[in-house]
């Protein structure tokens, strides 16, 4: 437990530092190893969508929880860096799922609210916080609200106000950071950081998102990439396949990584 506590403290420090934490999401042991070897990477995050896809499951808690726990445990064992896991909405029991994740070396997690009633979402966050406390580690819960990602045609001001209310409620019960995935403008980020406090908001990187340097200036704690990193890897594989079918071969910058 000493080692896992040290990793948890390190992960918490990385989130609270004024320097922006960037994490490239991984989905198995070899991607964890490869990403860990890059200078400047100080923590890893898993992507539930990517892990589910690896096993042939649709995203959305269709993968059996014990299979997800096994997968994130293998990732944690493949690196010396702290690992935060995407645990979706907790697979029906957020506290117990967190306990299982801690047992395999995970020191932080995303937890989706899925736009459930606020009281229900807050109770799930509390269960995860208590699981970390019971384990004796500062478990870094990245409490996620899906109100922006699932905004539909709701007025944007209402959506941001909802994200602020939910995020503040999650922070009030012990979550150290709040994840608001979806398209955010500089004004949105400014409002969220003002409401939560600096180094309390985490975002997702996507084509056209606010540049990393600017997000750091605005007080964002962390940027992750979800399943998009797996898409980039799959693009490379598909492009290679097309080249081979067309009579080509390995790219000129080919190098052995495993």
The SS-based structural class is alpha/beta
Shape: globular
Sequence of secondary-structure elements: HEHEHHEHEHEHEHEHEH
How large a portion of the residues is in β-strands, by DSSP E?
5-15%
Largest sheet: 8 strands, parallel
Counting DSSP H or I runs of 4 or more residues, the number of helices is 10
Q: Over all CA atoms, what is the radius of gyration?
A: 18 Å
Low-confidence stretches: none
Count of strand segments: 8
What does the average pLDDT come to? 97
Percent range for helical residues? 40-55%
Q: Would you mind describing this structure in some detail?
A:
The chain is α/β, with parallel strands linked by helices. It is built from ten helices and eight strands. It has helices spanning 2-16, 29-36, 48-54, 65-77, 94-103, 118-135, 156-172, 186-196, 212-218, 228-245, and strands at residues 21-23, 44-45, 83-86, 108-112, 140-144, 177-179, 201-204, 222-224. It has an eight-stranded parallel sheet with strand order 1-8-7-6-5-4-3-2. Helix 9 links the parallel strand 7 (201-204) and strand 8. The longest helix is centred in the middle third of the chain and has 18 residues, at 118-135. The two termini are 30 Å apart.
